[in-house]
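User: Okay, second chain of the day. Same drill as before: sequence in, structure tokens out.
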Amino acid sequence: MSHLVSAFSAINVEPEENLDEEIDTSRELHIDEALKRFQTALKLHAQGPKHYQEAAAAYNHLFQSEIFRLPESATEFDRAERHAQGRDLSAHLSFPHTLEVAQPDIADVDGGASSLPQTLYLAYKNHGQFVLDVIRHQARVSQADGASLLGDEHTLSQARRALDEYSAALDQDPSDAELWRRAARVAAFLQSARISRYCLEAAIELDDDPAVDEVEPPSLAEGFAGEQLKGQLQVLSDELGLNHPAMAPFMKKTVPEALKKHVDPLPFLPDPTTSLTSFKPTISGAGAQECVIQVPNPSWVDLGLALLAYTRSNDVGAGKVSLLVPEIPDVLDDVQTLTERPKTQEIEDQNQTVEIPTVESPSASRDDQVDTPKEARAENDSTLDDRLQDQSGSIISRKRSQSVAGLPDAAEEEAVDQKRSKRTRRRETAGESLDSNTLLAAQLQPFQAADKNLFQMTRNLVENLGVEDKATLERLGEVIDSCASDTRTSKLTRRPMVDLRDSLIKFVDDNAKILLAKKTSSPIGLASFLEHSKPASQHLASKPPFHDTRGLASFVQKINDGWMDIQEVIFHWIQHICANYLSSTWSDEMKRAVVQVISYLHEVIYSGTDHQLLHCRQCGGSECTKAAVDQLVQMQFELHLDIYERITNPNSAVDFATRVETKARLARWFSLAAQLSKERVETSDISLSMRFLWSSVFAVTLTEGVEREHVLQCWKSLRDRLAEEEATFNIQLPNNAIMPEVSALAADREISKLTTMDFFLGLFQTDLKDPVSVIESLEPVLNPSSVVTIIDQSDQSEDDATTHELTTSSSSQEDRLITETASQGLRDLWKFLLGTSTELRLFLWTRLGDAYEEINYKTKQFSCFLKSIEMIIEDFERDPYLNASDEIRVPLFIKMLKFLDELLISALSAALNEPSAFEIVDDQHIKLSIAAVAKLCCILHVASMYEDEVRVGMMQHTSNNNTFQSFLNKLREMQVRSWSLLFTILKAGMQQNKNLFPAGDSERADYLAAIHQVLGLRKFCKSSNKIFLRMMRVELLKPKQHTIDNWDDYFGQVLYDLYGLKLGLGLSEVQDHGCLPEKLERRNTMSLVSRVSVLAHRMPMKDLLKSDLKNTIEHMQQAIGPTKSNQQLIQNLRIFNQTMAKPIHPLRLYEAFKGKVAIDAVGVYTSDSTLAKHKWFFLLGMIAFTKFKGVDLNRRQTPGATDDLRIGATFLRQQLQFTPDQWDAWFRLAECFDYELDESVLWTADKMNKERAELVKYQRNAIHCYTLALSHSRTVVLTENEEANDAMHDLYHKFGMRMYASSREPFAMEPFQHSEHKRFVIQETGADTKDVHSQMQDYKVWKYAARLFRKAMEVKPGQWKNPYMYAKCVWKMYRKPLTDLDPIDQRSRPTVESVIKALEQSVKVVSALPKPRHGQDPILEPHYKIVSVIHKLVLLNDLQPQEAADILQRQPYAIDNGEHMEISDLEDWESYVIKTLTQLREKDRANWQHRIFMRHARIIFDENSEESSVVHALAAFSVLKDSMLTKTMVMNVWKCDAERPGRHHVYTEQYVRFVVKLLVVLKDRTNFEAMLRRLRKKGADYYHFSDLWQTCCLAYLRLIRQAYQVSPVLEDEFKSTTPEEFEIITSRINEWCSDPSSSHPALSALQEAIELKKLNGGLMKAGTIDDLINDCYTTLYCKTGKSLPGPDVAALLEEKEQERLQHEARQLEKDNAELKPLNPFGGILNPQSHENSGTEGGPGDSTPANMEGVQRPRKAGIRRADVLRRAEQAVLRAQEGPRPTNAKSRSSVSSGKTPAVDENNEGEADADSDRGSTRGDADGDVEMKDEEADRELSSVPGSVHDSADDESDLSDVPLEDLLDEDEAQHLMFPNLIRSQDSEPEESEAETEEDESTMEDIEE
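Assistant: Same drill. Structure tokens below.
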């Protein structure tokens, strides 16, 4: 027990010693507050110098936070210092503790302890950066240089503060390598090399000891830190430090030039540690003669231009020159060595690849293996450039190790592991990460698969065509093999492909602009030839570009340290340039600067050179110095020769004076060079002598007046001299345009140019004016294989030769190629062209093509385009291109791409737009062109490979500027054009070799799809203005293309890319290729119609509505626009309308079965005829029509919009206007009319009751259309196509349904009646009218429909409706009396056996249908129909009951499972039929089959029999109450699925009539009244509603008379009654009626009659109702009114008469006593009316005459209107009940009302009665509204029948009707008095109003 207590205590009782460990959240609050202050400071800091003061204050506010006073905020340095001073910290903070000690507070688990170091770190780091930003801003504002910053104490103190902040931040997080770099840079500024080195070593140290394993920098920050440390160690010459393993990566690799600018993190601060010399400020103002030259940029070009500008403005002075050059970046020797090595790219790649560690190496299996794609590491670049570019920019966490001496310290690594970043720790589990190779391979797989498929298909087609070019097949094979590799671009070996890759990876804007430049027209003339005939740049060997800063720093330091004037500086500058003249290639800017300097400062350079020569001669200078001067002179000679040639060529516009001056300078240097050449010893370098000889010969060439033969001999002598040297002797001059090469081959080229000059002079003299001469000149030169010469072999003499005819026989002539008979001059031309540049040969091909264009020879021009492409592709494989340097070859390659792009555009345009493009292109030509274009496709595909690797993340774009993107777009466009051109050539080859390609169409389509897949996956199939997509669209739309497999997929993708439209067909979904959809134009749409129509007609219409093809069709229709009418279309429409308006001719219906019915339409030939030919309008109509039919009419709950139906009918009419013999269009149009008719009669019976003409029009139109469809369908053959068979079946079935439905109610044969169509006939008796033809009888209609149903059964025997309707037709034909038939029909009239057979067949078919699903009722219509028909046959005695029972017992739903039933008489039969119907009712669980219930009730109660009793009526009514009628007499009759539209309203009318008869027999006024109310509300639901309502009202009136025994009044009881007497008695009747205890049968009958009159509302004439009201009130007046208690009527009348006479006498006396003198003019001013008597008052009397005047005598007798009015008042008083005793009695019901008042109002009452009667006769609802408005103030009391479950919907007579109209007029404020009088009544009315019932909402 004690143990349980202790356990309980341990759980619930907290020990007291734990109370001290309560959670303290104050530190978290302080941290949050500090973070808010930090955010404020950081925001102000980021807003720039304008907010630096506010930012400083914010940082000060930040450091005043409480967190900086916490013991944990102290740094390790502070703790060490306090410990040294004896101020020890607390025990748990003085040294590292375990986790429990370091986290004493429980609150640390919420993040407080972990967020504090982060907050401190961010605060110190950002504040230190802020201090440095302030220093930079102050230096920029004061324009202080580095020396001034070093001398500024304030700046130094601020820098020290920044260093302190950085040290505090690094104490919190020592893994920030970038922060270590910045701290090192600040320390260097403070001239503390020791601290700087310490920080840099901390930045590069790794957790993995470099002494154990060599690692590489994982981040840019560590790489930059290593580069800084290497520079510092090199300055110190610390070889031990440089050989440390941690420095190994930085010693082997170098930082590229592009990243060197980022090495210094704080470039605005001077760095005194870069040199061992003390950093001293420069002393300004050294002397007055000092020349200070400011150089804007640190480059040799800017230095030369600065020297030139200075001499131009200040002339040449003698003062000391000081150069002010911005900071010059260091140039590393290893970079220089690499660039100067004359190695090919392949060798460099191999060497670099050897140096790169593989991906699997331990050093690479770290963080970079996870975060960097492996393919970026496989690139063939070994420099640190590519390593750093592939790394992410994030800084990787590192902790400085203690292994400076190369010894591992595992304990320290373990202790530091807690501070590593997540990324650092993740490197240890890199092996668990997902293999990046797998991810990259998965991303590249779709592109590689598409490429492999395309290039494999290309190779197969090329081989099948017989292309034997080995290089082409190898190129294709290499691309195919590359698809298996993830590093495709790195394995390229072909030089053009490598160049394209390098142009993308090492992007240069200038090269890209060559390709992006707009096309310029080539100048045509001799000058252009001379320009192009120069040795091309591709002949040059590789020369590295001139380094613009190498040696500049030492040169500037030499100038500034020494004393040189401007002349010496210029000469030294030109000497340095001369040293690089042969070894490097100058840039354009450098060449321009050199030309300007040597031209403007010629004297300075010449004098300097002369001085050097003099010094060498006098002092005997070294050989090196002499050689340098000799080189300088030769360079000057060559450069001046280049300048002179440029300003003297025909295109130069230099003035004459400049030319003379330049020529003098050239002669001067020529002379000096010749002198040196003579002094040159023979053993010296031969290259200078050869250069001088070449320059001399060229100078002779430029000399005017020299004979051409002499020049030619000079070149030949030079060639012979050069030929004496070694075969490899070749001097390259990369910086001289006119003599880039000195060799024997170059001399041969010059000789060839001179020998072919005549040819080109003759060529250019024509100037394209005579294209034939150009063709004759160029065709043998450029395309000798196509030129044939005719050799005459006859021995005829010259005399005979003159008469030799051109038509000589072939035996005397021989055709030979011109290559066999060419002259020496032509051979020289061929030889010359082989050595010329590509530009010149391309220029000549262009000339030739333009000449063919002039003579409109398009096919030959196209051949020239192809030959040009072949020539350029061939040049890519020639030695001049392959051996050129990278700097020369890549721009040349881009230039050739530019030429190819222009040729591709021209060739592709000709191939696609010129039908005769391939006429003269023979098989060999096609093979060569295919090989060339296929090679071009392989070359251009490198761009796609590159983009694939960028897309998956293997590498990044080297540039993202607009030029680079434009360059990529241009390459994409070229790819699209090249593939398109290749397809056109392949297509031509396949057409020429059809025997090799039996399935050519399919192969071409597959090839196009393969190209589309390759281009589309990369999202640039839209390039080049979607030319490929348009070409593919045209190809796929050609005839016979629909037989191609996967055509739907191919065309669907093209259509989606072009216009954004989807076909929704095919096996695969369309892909998004990034194409913006363009607007679909009518021209393009018309070409799509044929194929889209075929696709749409293949699909079922229901599927089409759900597919994307429907949207495509609608979009196409919008592009096509509306059809324009012409005379033929209008004529056909007129004929169509006339046909529809004709009556239905019986003969025409029968001729339709024979196909002899048609309309006389005219042919239509318009632009839209093509649309109609492909059934386009029919398709649109079917789409709209099917959309309307989408919701079945039988299942729709509300009326549907018929817009789609009418749109469909419109399109179908348009189709028929073009193709009037299209049977399915007529059929669908007939369906449209049918549905229009169904919509009109399905939901309401209004149109059946009021607008029958419109319904007849719909029926006739439908029948006419069905007739034409039936006639034109005779040519249709039933096939296995289910959709076509469905259409034929629907035609027969729906036509039969239309015929049958039009013959039955509610249409009642009206469409076949044409009494309104008459024709005039002239007879002997005169003109007469006659029917146009005989009308079709109902028997003929049923017979015709039965024939249609039989044909429908032949098409689809399993459709149950066809035999069902056929049986109904046979039954109707059987019921037709023989006397109404013609003899033929009498003989063919169906028999009982045929009727029963048809019915049993319908039951058999419906029984064979699959069983309904769960919850669905079976189809019962045929089962009920056979029961109903056989019952009628039994009643007609046409079938014996026993035989009928046997027939029914063999049906599926027979009672007692079909056992034999004995039927002896009709009573047994009726019982049997009732059981059978009950059996069917049980199957109808949803009570849809209302006819079964009604048939049951009619069997019980025969409405036509007089023997039916109340018992039968009650039984029948009970059946209906159980199934059809509700308690409130709502008739629930639902429309069955098989019920024809409109038939529902016929059934409801019949059922109401039957129910009325039942109620009359049962004398059930309660249910009768409820049914009348429902009937009145739902008038639109009943067929023949007016007649039905009248019938019901009359029956109800008769029922009232019978119930209350109200006999009609034969004589007028009020004929002798005076109005006064009538008024008194009716007032007593009103008072009597208000008594609840009063009762009388006449009063009850009166009340019901009044209610019926209100309910009628004028729908039926109220005469019959008024008769009953009059009879009831007369009975009440005579039998009750006269016997009511009260004074004697005669005495009362006499008393009133005496009072009236006395009153008149007193009034007359009063008037006479007060008579005043009359105004003589009173008669004029106030004339008396002729109606006024002399006893009336004077002109001022305001009393009405009818009140005080003499009353006119009234006739005896009361009008009928007054009786009706009093009857209504009596009913109203009976409904209101008795009046309160204190209420004022109304004069209208009291006995005090004077006869005079009533007499005066008599006319108005009559008028009111007449008006009410008129309104009632006019229409029903008008009077209802008035009466309802009058009944607003009264509530309806309960019904006179207590059992009624629903009350009157009509209000009672308003209270104001109780007042006579004259009384209401005499009241000044009638409403006020009325409100006072009705106060007690209103309370009663409110009580009664609450008890009144609302209408039942059931139908």
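Residues 1280-1322+1332-1409 form one domain.

User: Thanks, on to the next one.
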